[in-house]
Structure formats: structure tokens, C-alpha cells
Batch of 4 targets.
Target 1
Amino acid sequence: MSASVLRYWRESASLILVGKAAAAVATSTPTTLTSQSQENDRNVNTANYKILMLKRSSRMSFFPNFYVFPGGAADDADFSSEWLDILGPSFCSTTGPYSPRESLFRLFSRETKDNRRAPILSRKRDPKYSVIPSDIAFRICAIRETFEETGILLAYKAKSNATLEQNNNPNSEGNSEVTRRCTAKLCDLPAEQLNEWRHCVLKKSDNFLKMCRELNLIPDLTALSEWSNWLTPTTTNKSRSKKRFNTIFFISFVDYLPNVIIEAHESTSHMWQTPNEYFTQVADGSIYLGPPQMYELNYMNFRSWETFHDDVEQHPHFHASQWMSVEVKCKDGSLFLFPGDDKYPKEVNFEHGVGQLSSHRILERVSLSSSFW
């Protein structure tokens, strides 16, 4: 039995990577897809940060030609017990009271109130896939997939005796919780060496673990903060893929815009843009975004990279809830409802969904009133 393949969907992880850039100068009226205040629009339009997104190949069966955050399906190798040997020395000391495995389980479990977890992180798995906590396995997945798709590797060289994590978090083995560090460390290995390993990892996910072991690397787990948990909705549209994913989204920050080298099989291009720049291109039909990407980008109305970073860093107890949009089929298109919307169903079966709701109204009229049934 696989660690991440279930009856109705497959589990995956994505990474929202926020890069620091020079502040833009507003030269035109901002375009957003919601009724944000003009002040917020100006802030987003001139923000000094950009979000990395990749355009999926037209050959892909799931969301072809759409722009998405880096990420992909989890692999059994992400849950391998062999990660204990690699991660253990960096997250526990020889004099501490906890074993390497206990230290890894405490690493993120201490960051949630009442021990609540996102559904994708809390479900019981086969014992062979439970040696590594799901919090860590899905972070490994997000880092591995980002490396495969972009060539960006969030990792650092392990140190003997005094490890990086122990230096950053001197009380990590006591009762104090691990200090949240949202700015990621990017691996500075020679480009040729990284590229060789990237090709190996693309061929077989197990090679990511092998690479970390042989190069003495530690995936930068604590730089990834839990952000959201999205479930692909059901659909009755025969032209759409029936694939469904339960995806945990993480967020991390870098203080520059790293070079991206696209892996041509799944993606064709990439963009570093502000949320408002993405919305502008969606509005003029230049690009396509799925509901999760639209929703998450809309939330990112921060004034600067610094305020965005600090907001995430100051909420270590945040835990994601599982969300699923519900499609309303109108005469001239589709409308997606989200939890909190007036007409979102009170009860939703995540496994079978509610199919497609329908309305005799047209989208233009729906947008003018929430009472459209």
C-alpha cells in the first residue's frame, strides 16, 4: 500500500516561494479580482516581492497550460525511515532526552495548539510510512518537487557536532519550541553537480534521499511554514480530468529571486510576479490560474516582503483547514464557491463531493448579487 495514494485522491505538496525584489512603481490603475481597497491595491501593485509560478505543459492531463506553484505528488521515498539517519543528527543532540525519531515528531507537533493538524498531516498511515512524521515527509516532498521542477534546492550543508539547527535553536531539545525561521537557505553547490543530481532525482525520487546522504545535505524543513490544504473538487464535466489531489501548501521566503531552470516535461515556462501582476494577466486572458492559486494570491495583499515574512513568522501555531471549492454551472460559464461564501453548501462530502450545482442565471448577473438561486 502506498504512503500517499488513497481511493479518491492522491496526496501531494506544493511550495509558495516568495522572493524579494526591487519595489515596483505603479504606472497604471491596479487590476484585482476582488473588492480590495484602493490602498491595498496600491500596496500590492508596488510590492517588493514576487511569487514563483510555473506554466504546466499542454501535454499534462491535470490543469494543462495553467500556472501553478511548484510541487507534485508525494512519493513513498519521502516517508522513508532512512531519513532518520540524515535528519536525526541535525535535530537532536547526543545529550538530549529524546531519540532522533522522537525529536522529529516533536519538531512540528509542538507548533500547534491542542495538537490539531491539517487532515493530510493527521491521518493514520501504514506503519512502514509512519517512522517519519507526515509534517516532515510532505516538506521533503515540496522541497524535492521544487528542485525537480525549477532547479532551486532548499537545503544546506550539515555540520558535524554543532549543527545548523542546533545553533539556530539552542533550546530545541528542551521544553522551548523550535524557533520559526521563514527565510530559506538555498544550496550553493556547483551548478554542474546540482544538475547531475537533478536528473537523477527526476528519474527516481529515491535519489533525492541518496543525494542528501552523499552530499551531506539537510533539506531546509524549518523554513517551510504550513499555509493551506486544498482538495480537488469533484466534477461532472467529461472534458476535465477526473484526477483529484489532496495538497498541502507550504510557504517559504528567499531574499532574492533565484534563477529558475525549467524541467521541460511538466512545465514550459515560469514567472516571478506580484499577485496583482498575475491578476492583471488573468483578467486580459493571458494566463490561467486554478481556484486554489486564485484564492491564495488574493490573500497576499501585503505591503512588502518584510511585512509578509513577519506575518508568517509570527504565527507558528497556524494550522491549515481542508478546503474544497464547489462549482456552480451557469448559462455562460462556471462560478466557484469557497467556504465562507453565502451559498457554499452547509455539508460537503469530500470523498464524493456534491457534483456540480447549477443556476439559470448568467455570470454577469451572479456577480451583482449573492442571492442567485
Target 2
Amino acid sequence: MKTTAAIESNNFFSTKLDIDTSKTQINMPDIVFAFGPSHSFYFFAGHTRHFSKIPEQFKRYVLESPENEMKRLKQPQCVALGPTEQEYYTMYQTMEDTDRYTYDFQSSHPELMNWLKPLSKVVGTHVAIGPRRTFYACVPTLTNGGTFYSPSIPADLKSLLDDNASADPNRKFTAQVSLGYGDSWYVLWPNGEVSWDFKGHYDELDTIMETLPEKCILHLVLNPWERGQYFMVLEDGEVKFCLPEEYAGEIEDAIKDHQNQWQTKRISSIKGGKAQSHIVGANKIHMVLKDGRRRDKDGPDAPPPYDGGSV
């Protein structure tokens, strides 16, 4: 197990937004990525979103809410896809700036649904779905929250979570957890520190992590179903990823567009000084999946997912 954590590697696509921060504090809009089963994914950056084969219920109730356009997703806070093609969790800010969450784990994790349903709707709640029907959930509040995870999560991760929860009040909860391929895992703590063990399945990412300055990772997800694939966002706006070839180019273009838009926005909004901005690109590598076949499954209509409503 390792703690804390990354930067330039010519083996990975890397794009970075550099702005002179001496004149202003930069708060870049979140970039969110989620891996799903059967090469499904969800990507969000500013006003841009890309996805493939996401659950129909997620699309219907979150992205295209027919009942009320103001209840649709404006900004995701957490998105988890799987373990089946129709299951998911998401907490998000709506068009009317309220916080909502909805999920459907009826087939695979009814115990997780039962645990989540009575809990308070707390901003910062996050869920991770892993291989072999593993899961982790955290509702970060002392009064009506806690953590809940499957018995089959990696033993060293379970020990880390249990030991820290009892010994360190600052680590009673997590800020993000990702369950990866072959019992690999990653944890982001509320103070910005990170812990991880990739179990030899993400060698290049291990190297990146060991060269990063402390407390600089905003978002890191591991693909639980494919070895070596990940998506990382750093606090300075840099994005690193290793994705399947079938959609890596699409995501790369979306990141560049988003950063160019943000660059223009920041330049026009800074007063009394000039922002020096440019996009820095690097060589990229696309991982080609050994099994690139898509498998679409059509089944009977599922009942509506649990809708947690607004906070």
C-alpha cells in the first residue's frame, strides 16, 4: 500500500491548462469520468458530456427528466456505473441548483439500496462499484451516515478503512474511493492525501503517482473490468488517461474543447492584469482492448430507480 501522490509521461496523453494564478484564484469546473461494464462510460466537463451504453434509467431520469427540465443534471458530484449494464448511482446538482441522487442496484446489490434509502441526502456521498460484485459507499456525516461495503472488497483496503476510521478522526470518512481491476484500489481522503495499491495492474500509473506533488489529485478512477485503464484529473487542470481506442479520441477532443472554453472565460473575466494561457499537449497512447466487441442487451423494462429527491 502506498500513500500520496504524479506528472509528465510521454507514454500517456496529457493536456494541461496553465494560467497565471498570481492575479486570481482558479476554480476550474469539475471533470467527471465513470467506467462501466461492456465498454460503457460517462464523461462530463463543463457543459459537455459524452457517454455510451449508459443505463436507460440513468438517461431517462437524470439526463432527460421528462417530468421537469429543472430536475435534470447540471453538475455531477458522483457517477458510478455497474455492475450490470442497467445499474448505476449518481448524485448531482440540478438545473435549479438543488442536490439530488438516484440509483438502481435492484439486481446486484439490494442490500446497498436498503442501506442508502433511509440515509440523509448528503452532498459528498459517493459510491464505487468494483469487479466481482464488490462495492463501497460513504455518506460523510456523523449524525446519519457512515460507510458500507461488500465483504469481498480487498482485505488490505478493508483494514485501511477500518483502522483509519477508529484511529484518525480526519479519516473516518473518505472523499473518493475507486475499486479497480484485480483487487486494486485507490482512496482520496478529505484532507487531500491519497492511498493506493494497484497490485501491478497499473504500472505506468504507479510511476505517475510517485512523482506527483502532495494533495494534487481531484479525481481518479480505475476501470474495474479492464487492466491498466484509468482517468485522472489534477487540481491544476491537467488530465491524464488511458482509455480504449474506440472512444479515447472523442474524450481527448472534448477535454481540449473544454479547456479552451475555460481559458477564454478566465481571460475575459480577469481585470487589472493579463492571464498568460496556453494548452500543453503530449504524446498519447490508446489502449486497444483485446475484446473490442460490443454486447448490447435488450431486456424487459425495469421499474423506476429510487429517486432520493432534492436536499
Target 3
Amino acid sequence: MAPRKQQLPNKEIDKQNCTTTGEVITLSDDEDQDVESLENLKLKLGRDIKILKEELELRRDIASLTKKKTEMGSEIESLNNEKTQLGADSELLNKGKVKLQTDFEFPNKEKSTVQGKPKKGYDKRKSACC
């Protein structure tokens, strides 16, 4: 009697090319050998499933990190715009300060020239009290 052989189709995933390839498992008359082959196949498929799950998790992590990177880029742009605006405001304040100082010094110079120079004794008394 010829040994009975049965073929079961099995598809294997080619991880590098993301394609499936057909694989045929040939069963023999030896049940122990068939069980061992199927157990080995089960282990291999379990490892492949684990790898695919890890890859999926990594892709999700990458997507999440990409989203965070985009958000941080927007925040950086916003902060740079705010920094530029603060720099412009600071420049305007400095110009205003200089103008106020000039406006304040001009009347004081006029006052000094109208009154004349103060006496030496007056300077000593003023410096002694202040």
C-alpha cells in the first residue's frame, strides 16, 4: 500500500517585501512526524505574529512621535514669533526711554543756562545733605 500524503496550503509573509508566498506542507503516514511538523509551524507562526505585533506597535509609536514633533514645531514657531514681537516691543520701549531722557534733559539744560552756574558752597551743602 502506497503511503498516503495530504497537502495543506500555508501562506507565509515575506516581511521585507510585504508579500505572501505559498508554502505546501506535506503530511506523511507518520503521525508523530506530522505533529512535530505542525508544532514547529505553530511555533514559527507564533514568532511571526509576535514580530508583526511589535512592528505594529513601533509604527504606532512612530506615528505618535511624528505627531508630537509636528506639535512641537508649531509651538517653536509660535514662541519664535512671540520672541520677535517682544524684541520689537523692547526696541520701542528703549526708543521711548531715550526720548523721555532727552525731553527731561533739555529743560534741565535750559534751566541751568538761565540760572547760571551754582556757587561752590551750594554744591558742598547739596552733596553733604544728600
Target 4
Amino acid sequence: QCADMMTDLKTGHLIGGVPRTQQLAQFGVAWIGPAIAVGTTMLLWSKGPGGTMGFGPESQACVDKASGCLPAPQASVLQSMIEGVLHGNAPIDKYVAGAAIGGGLALFPIAGLGVLVGLAMYLPFEITFGYGLGCLANMAMEKMKGRRFIGDVVVPLGAGLIIGEALTNLTLTMITLAKG
């Protein structure tokens, strides 16, 4: 959370914000994110896919391979890692190899390559493909227009697109769940 707040303060500084005002605003609205997250989770749990309760790989919709399955890929990966450690059969050699590959990819001049490869290992193709295209577009724009253009135009536009997509998907999900 500290890194997130520091990033917010840095972003605020870049656009001319006052740190004291930013911190007061963060303190005043800090409850909204957890309230929405808990509310959304409870709503998805109570009105899960196909009329069944729950989500994740063990939910009835995922077991039946229904179209409304909400698999939670990151949670599944973390669950398997934790179970491996708890039961003493964690593939430590693979974790070390992954860390070494990630460290090596971080040395390449292509920004985000290590993250892209890591995400590609457990997220669906359509997500990592979009991320990869975004990395390539960012690199091309930076060469053509410079870093300042990226910071002044592309980053705010990208943030708006991410927020817009999330709000649209949340609205569509709420409408679908409200219909029953």
C-alpha cells in the first residue's frame, strides 16, 4: 500500500498537486475501494455463474465447464504454490529458474519483457497479447515523440482507458446480476 500511495503522490506532483491535499483526499476516500471490492465479491458469490454460488476453479460453473465460469487464474496459481510449500513438494528448482529468467529479462532494453513473459504463463492469451501490443506501441511512440509525450499524453490516456474498461465491465456485470 505504501508503494501505491507514493506512486499517487508522485503522479500528483507531476500534474501540480499539493501533497497535503492529496493525503487528505486519500484518507477521506480510502474506505471506498475495500467497500466496492467486498461488495462485488459478495455479489459474485451470491449470484455466481449459471445461478450457482461461488467462483474459482472449484465452483460448479467451472467444474461443469459452463460459459459463465469465473476461474480466478492468479488465485489458482498462488493456491498451487502455497499448497506445494505446505506439503513439502514445491518445485523450488522451477521457482529459482523463473526468478533467474525474470532477472535476466529485466536486463534487456525492452521495457516490460519480464512482466509480459511472467503474465503469459498464467493469464489468458487475449490479456497478454494486448499487453504485448501495448508495450510495442509504447516503445514506438517513445521513439517517435519522446518520453515527455508519453508522460503527458499517453499515460493519462492509458489510465483513462483502463478505468473506462473496468467501469464498463462492472456496470455490465451489475446489470446482468440485477436481471437475475
